[in-house]
Amino acid sequence: MLLGCKAVVGCLCLLLLNGCAAWKLKDLAAQMPASGPITTLERLQQIEPPQRDRAQYLLNTGLLKLYTGDFSGSQQDLQQAKQIMEALAATSVSENLAAFTTNETLRSYSGSPTDRVLVHVTLALAYLLGGDLQAARVEALQLDVTMRQFPADKTIGHLASARFVAGLIYELAGERDDALISYRLAYNILKERQEPVPEALQSALLNLTHSQRGFEREYNGYRSEFNRDATVPGRTEAEWLLIYFDGVVSQRTETRLTIFAGEANTVVTVVIPGYHDSGRTPHPLQWQAPGSSGTTAIIENIERRVRQDLDAESGALVATATARAVAKYHMVRNAREQSELAGAFANIFSVLSEQADLRSWNLLPAYIQVARLQAPAESPLTLPLKSFTDDAGKFQRPANMRVLFTSSYTPAVFGYPQTLDTNATDEITERP
Amino acid sequence: MRLWIVAAFSLLLSACGTSVQRVAPDESIDLSGAWNDTDSRLVAEEMISDALARPWLGDYTSRNGTRPAVIVGSVRNLSHEHINVKTFVADMERSLINSGRVDFVASRDERGEIRDERIDQDLNAREGTRNAAGQELGADFMLQGQINTIIDAEGKQQVRYYQVDLTLISMADNRKVWVGQKKIKKLVKNPKIRF
């Protein structure tokens, strides 16, 4: 009997410890606006996650390393995370058994559809900002393969931001026909979702259909829809493409549901993950160039994407949780028949082991925003927290385009090609 | 009974340990279906042997009375995978040099280091042991290429099609003297169930 009690206590300790890493990650994500990416990364690296949460951990460290300008570190972590998620695509017998008998957190973290696409996007940016356009192009091709595996008639796993970044990479590589195809796909996704088409995507579609033969009809369609003409940059102008990761996505929370389980003829309580209404609003990034100014616009509302991913699997989660609750109900009843003490321990185990799976890619931005603008190549472009200039001679054909990347929590602006002044790495504690 | 439990645990633990087995470098091992060392080596060997069997080599040798000097230019990775093109280029260089039928000159990156060393020799080496600048062998032909892929995936299955295109271009007049192509097609079936 004593041995049995020890085993139960041991199991409970193990389960509670397992939940710890997930809670710590949630806390770090919540503190990110105050602590910034460098401190968050340092704290994250002190956590030793269980092996089954390795992919989740690496996704978070990889993204933070991108924010801090450690592009090779970001590439390594995200590549590892990607490989782990790919290897976990097969259904695990033991993990399903554990999830059925104990809770969902005993499954290995294999990422949501949004994670599996955004890992390519983040990697593409890490390669691009690290100066390796060819490797970024590989990620653009891979994200196409990944997205094609999701059902075409549903929007789950189809991200306009991913198509947009792929289009940008093709454009930088001088592959304008592939770029146009990707931009079109981004446009189709946004239309399917009835979300606004950001000006950056409008400009890309207008410019590419206007500057190539055979697309007059398509160009006229975009022109009447967007109510504007193409603005192809002149010889002395540079084209800037801003990619801005805004905020941190909401964290999953536990939701308790009371369900009548007909099989056991009783009411059971199950816990499943959910999202509170964040009330979060996007904070567009302002830019200024001589004679013009504007803000970035949302191309991906990740707050919505993560909720849609969870909604898509909620049916299966509730069904498993209900079956598990019934199994635990029978286990407790059988234990009680043997002895009161065993019944009490079984009950404690049953209650404490019931945890919702709160794991997610915690540090994803809440919104991905973009802007595309033209300015005289010799003139400085100003962002709210950093101003920089560049030599006109450094703008290279064929793309004649500069990509800038920044996030809410660091004033560092990283660019491709890497000739910009990106020395500032001081963190800010809050957005102004 | 306890003995059986201990034995079962030992068996489980032994399955968790790392195991290392030494294998011959030319042994073909396919794990994920991605481009691997075997693909790199086989493609390089087959394409270079094809290049050396074509008329351009005999034409050049009979016309000039010397072996042609070849340099490997860029081999672009336009595939779906992060392929280490350097190992592929090294495999091609090895096949070309070992054929003994062409001279091979150092690539742009390698030349920089050698030139630095030559400058250093000018300053620091004994006169009789110095190598003079301006004595380099110029390449007659440049080998360029690209690796492309087409991936078709459905569920747990993938067809991975690789096409490697190499072109040998005359440095004198930009003539393409040889175009080689090697195709690899793999059917990759990923498991539906794991333990």
- Report how far the terminal alpha carbons of chain A are from each other: 61 Å
Largest sheet of chain A, described in full? 5 strands, mixed
Largest sheet of chain B: 5 strands, mixed
Can you say what the CATH homologous superfamily of chain A is?
Tetratricopeptide repeat domain
Strand content of chain B: 25-35%
Q: Mind explaining what this structure looks like?
A:
The complex is a heterodimer of chains A (432) and B (195). Chain A is an alpha+beta fold and 432 residues long. In chain A, 51% of the residues lie in helices and 17% in strands. Chain A has a single domain, classed as Tetratricopeptide repeat domain (Serine Threonine Protein Phosphatase 5, Tetratricopeptide repeat, Alpha Horseshoe). Chain A starts with a helix and ends in a 16-residue tail after the last strand. In chain B, α2 packs parallel to α4. Chain B is globular. At the A-B interface, β1 and α6 of A face β1, β3 and β6 of B.
List the helices and strands and how they pair.
The complex is a heterodimer of chains A (432) and B (195).
Chain A: H1 2-44, H2 54-68, H3 71-87, E1 91-92, H4 93-101, H5 113-129, H6 133-148, H7 160-172, H8 176-193, H9 199-210, H10 216-226, E2 237-246, E3 253-261, E4 266-274, E5 286-289, E6 292-295, E7 297-301, H11 302-338, H12 340-353, E8 367-376, E9 381-383, E10 386-388, E11 401-407, E12 410-416
Helix pairs in contact in A: 1-2, 1-12, 2-3, 2-5, 3-5, 5-6, 5-7, 6-7, 7-8, 8-9, 9-10, 11-12
Chain B: H1 2-16, H2 37-52, H3 55-64, E1 69-78, H4 85-99, E2 103-104, H5 108-124, E3 141-154, E4 157-170, E5 176-189, E6 193-194
Parallel strand pairs in B: 1-2, 1-3
Antiparallel strand pairs in B: 3-4, 4-5
